[in-house]
Design a protein that fits this description.
23% strand, alpha/beta, 2 domains, Glutathione S-transferase Yfyf (Class Pi), Chain A, domain 2, Rossmann fold, 12 helices, 6-stranded antiparallel beta sheet, 5-stranded parallel beta sheet
C-alpha cells in the first residue's frame, strides 16, 4: 500500500507531498496536475513514464533535476532524474533507490506494483501493434525479473543488429560473421519474451471473465536461426530485422452467443464493447500481478469518468475496496455520495 509521496521539480510540482489511504480521490480541473501525480506513482512502480519516453520531460521547466520519493509498506522508493546539467553530470540519467540503496531498474520494478487504467487505454485495441506489445511488456515486467532482463538485452541486441543491417544495405553485401554474436542474443532473449508472453495470454484465456467474455489470439513472430536465414534477402533490402517479438501482435475476440462464434473486437465490437474488453484486460492484469508477486497492486484510475458511461463506471466501482485504489476526476459529483464518505480526497480545486 502506497502511504505517501514527495515530489521535487517534477512536472508542475516544485515541492509537494501527498498521503494516500485505501481509496483516494484526486479532484481538480484539467491541467491542475492530477495526471502528473499519477505519472509519478507509475514511475515509482514501473521505473518509466506512461506518457513519454524522454525522461527529461518529467523535470520541471528550467530545473536541472527532479526527485520522486515514496513510502510504502516496508519500503522507501526514490527516483532521481537529471537533464545533464546537475552536479557536473555530462549526460541525462535516471537513478533508482530502494531504502536508500541504489538499484538497477530490473531490481527496482515490482517493489510497488500498480495497474493503470485510463481512457487512452482504448487505443490498445484500436491503434498500432506497438501499444499491444507495450501492454504485454508492462504486465510481465511488473512481475518477472527474467522478462525484464531478457527484454533489455533483446532491445539492445536488436538495435546493434539493425545497425549492421543498415550498413550492409549501404555496402550491398553482408558478412555473416559480423552477425553471429547479435543473432545469438536476439534469438535467445527473443525466445524468452515469446514464451512468457504466451504464458500470460494462456493465463488470460483460462481466467473466468466477470466483466466481458473474450479471449486473446496471439500473433507471435518466432525468431530462430532458420527464420533469420529465411528473411536474409528481405532484411538486406530493408535494413531492419523482420522477425522476432518486436513484430508480435495480438487480437481480442468476443463471443457472439447467437451465432456461436467469435469476432475481433477491433473491427466488429462497439466502442462500449471495446471499453469492456480493456477493463477485463486490466482486471486480469491485477489478478496476474497478485498471483505472481503475492502482492495486490495499486489500481490507478485516471479520468475514467470522461470516457465511460454509467454502466461501465459501476463495474469499476465494484472493484474499489478489493485493493488500494487511486482515482482522478474533474468533478467529485461523479462519485456517489455514499462512496465519497469512504474516500480520502486530495483537492486541486481553488
Amino acid at each position: 500500500m502506497l502511504q505517501n509521496i514527495s515530489l521535487q521539480n517534477f512536472r508542475s510540482y516544485e515541492k509537494d507531498s501527498f498521503s494516500f489511504e485505501n481509496t483516494t480521490l484526486i479532484v481538480g480541473p484539467n491541467t491542475s496536475g492530477k495526471t502528473n501525480l499519477i505519472e509519478a506513482i507509475f514511475l515509482l512502480s514501473n521505473g518509466k513514464s506512461f506518457r513519454t519516453e524522454k525522461d527529461f520531460q518529467m523535470i520541471e521547466f528550467n530545473k536541472d533535476f527532479a526527485r520522486i520519493k515514496a513510502e510504502a509498506e516496508e519500503v522507501v522508493l526514490e527516483v532521481v532524474l537529471t537533464n545533464g546539467q546537475f552536479s557536473g553530470a555530462k549526460s541525462q540519467y535516471k537513478k533508482f533507490l530502494v531504502n536508500g540503496i541504489a538499484r538497477r531498474r530490473v531490481d527496482f520494478v515490482s517493489n510497488l506494483p500498480a495497474v493503470l487504467f485510463s481512457p487512452q487505454d482504448l487505443d490498445i485495441i484500436i491503434d498500432s501493434p506497438s501499444l499491444r506489445r507495450n501492454f504485454l511488456d508492462d504486465c510481465l515486467e511488473s512481475v518477472d525479473k527474467d522478462y525484464r532482463i531478457a527484454n533489455l538485452s533483446f532491445v539492445k541486441a536488436l538495435r546493434q543488429r539493425n545497425a549492421l543491417l543498415e550498413q550492409a544495405r549501404e555496402d550491398g553485401e553482408r558478412s555473416e560473421k559480423n552477425f553471429e554474436y547479435w543473432d545469438k542474443l536476439v534469438i535467445e532473449n527473443g525466445a524468452v519474451l515469446t514464451k512468457k508472453r504466451a504464458e500470460f495470454i494462456e493465463y488470460f484465456n483460462a481466467l473466468e471473465k466477470d466483466i466481458f467474455n473474450c479471449l486473446i489470439n496471439y500473433d507471435k513472430s518466432i525468431i530462430s536461426k532458420e527464420r533469420l536465414l529465411q528473411y536474409a534477402t528481405e532484411e538486406l533490402a530493408s535494413g531492419v530485422t523482420l522477425v522476432g517479438p518486436h513484430r508480435d501482435d495480438f487480437s481480442i475476440f468476443m463471443f457472439n452467443s447467437s451465432r456461436n462464434n467469435t469476432h475481433d473486437v477491433k473491427y466488429y465490437g462497439s466502442r462500449g464493447q471495446q471499453r469492456l474488453a480493456i477493463l477485463q484486460l486490466k482486471i486480469a492484469q491485477i489478478k496476474f500481478v497478485e498471483e505472481r508477486l503475492g502482492k495486490t497492486p495499486v489500481f490507478i484510475l485516471d479520468d475514467i469518468f470522461s470516457e465511460l458511461d454509467e454502466g461501465h463506471i459501476n463495474l469499476i466501482f465494484n472493484q474499489i475496496g478489493k485493493q488500494q485504489t487511486i482515482l482522478t476526476t474533474t468533478h467529485k459529483e461523479f462519485i456517489p455520495k455514499k462512496m465519497l464518505k469512504l474516500m480520502k480526497i486530495i483537492s486541486f480545486v481553488k
